[in-house]
Amino acid sequence: MAEKEKCFMCGSTEEEVVLIYARKGGSFFWVCVRCLPILIHG
Ligand SMILES: [Zn+2]
Protein backbone atom coordinates (compact mmCIF):
# COMPACT_ATOMS: atom_id res chain seq x y z
CA MET A 1 0.00 0.00 0.00
CA ALA A 2 1.55 3.25 -1.15
CA GLU A 3 -0.02 5.75 1.20
CA LYS A 4 0.63 5.74 4.95
CA GLU A 5 -2.26 4.38 6.94
CA LYS A 6 -3.85 6.96 9.20
CA CYS A 7 -7.25 7.71 10.69
CA PHE A 8 -9.39 9.67 8.23
CA MET A 9 -10.93 11.67 11.08
CA CYS A 10 -8.07 12.64 13.41
CA GLY A 11 -5.05 11.67 11.33
CA SER A 12 -3.49 9.37 13.93
CA THR A 13 -1.10 6.74 12.59
CA GLU A 14 -0.91 3.08 13.52
CA GLU A 15 2.06 3.87 15.74
CA GLU A 16 -0.16 5.99 18.00
CA VAL A 17 -3.48 4.14 17.98
CA VAL A 18 -5.12 0.94 16.77
CA LEU A 19 -6.44 1.47 13.27
CA ILE A 20 -9.37 -0.39 11.74
CA TYR A 21 -9.91 -0.76 8.02
CA ALA A 22 -13.49 0.03 7.12
CA ARG A 23 -15.61 0.68 4.08
CA LYS A 24 -18.69 2.70 3.27
CA GLY A 25 -20.45 3.33 0.00
CA GLY A 26 -17.82 1.41 -1.93
CA SER A 27 -14.85 3.39 -0.60
CA PHE A 28 -12.30 2.21 1.94
CA PHE A 29 -10.79 4.18 4.79
CA TRP A 30 -8.88 3.79 8.06
CA VAL A 31 -10.42 4.81 11.36
CA CYS A 32 -8.83 4.60 14.81
CA VAL A 33 -10.52 3.10 17.88
CA ARG A 34 -10.84 6.58 19.42
CA CYS A 35 -12.89 7.88 16.51
CA LEU A 36 -14.85 4.67 15.93
CA PRO A 37 -17.39 5.37 18.74
CA ILE A 38 -18.06 8.79 17.22
CA LEU A 39 -18.62 7.12 13.89
CA ILE A 40 -20.97 4.51 15.38
CA HIS A 41 -23.06 7.05 17.27
CA GLY A 42 -23.18 9.37 14.29
ZN1 LIG B 1 -9.05 8.88 14.79
Strand order of the largest sheet: 1-2
- Provide the gyration radius in Å: 10 Å
DSSP summary: helix tally: 1
* Counted beta strands: 2
Contiguous low-pLDDT stretches (5 residues minimum) are none
Give the terminus-to-terminus CA distance. Answer: 29 Å
Strand residues, percent = 25-35%
List ligands, each type once.
Answer: zinc ion
Helix/strand/pairing category: alpha+beta
Q: Structurally, how many domains make up the residues?
A: 1
Helical coverage, percent range:
10-25%
For the biggest sheet, the summary is: 2 strands, antiparallel
**Helix and strand string, N-terminal first?**
EEH
Any idea what the shape is? flat
Would you tell me the overall average pLDDT? 90
Question: How is the topology of this model organized?
Answer:
Layout: E1 19-24, E2 27-32, H1 36-40
Antiparallel strand pairs: 1-2
The chain binds zinc ion.
Note the main attributes of this structure.
42 residues, two-stranded antiparallel sheet, 2 strands, 29% strand, binds zinc ion
Explain the overall architecture.
Strands 1-2 form a two-stranded antiparallel ribbon. It contains 1 helix and 2 strands. The protein has one helix at 36-40, and strands at residues 19-24, 27-32. It has one domain (1-42). It has 42 residues and is of the alpha+beta class. Zinc ion is lined by residues 7, 9-10, 12, 32, 34-35.
Question: How is this structure best summarized?
Answer:
The protein has one helix at 36-40; strands spanning 19-24, 27-32. The chain is an alpha+beta fold and 42 residues long. The chain starts with 18 loop residues before the first strand and ends with a helix.
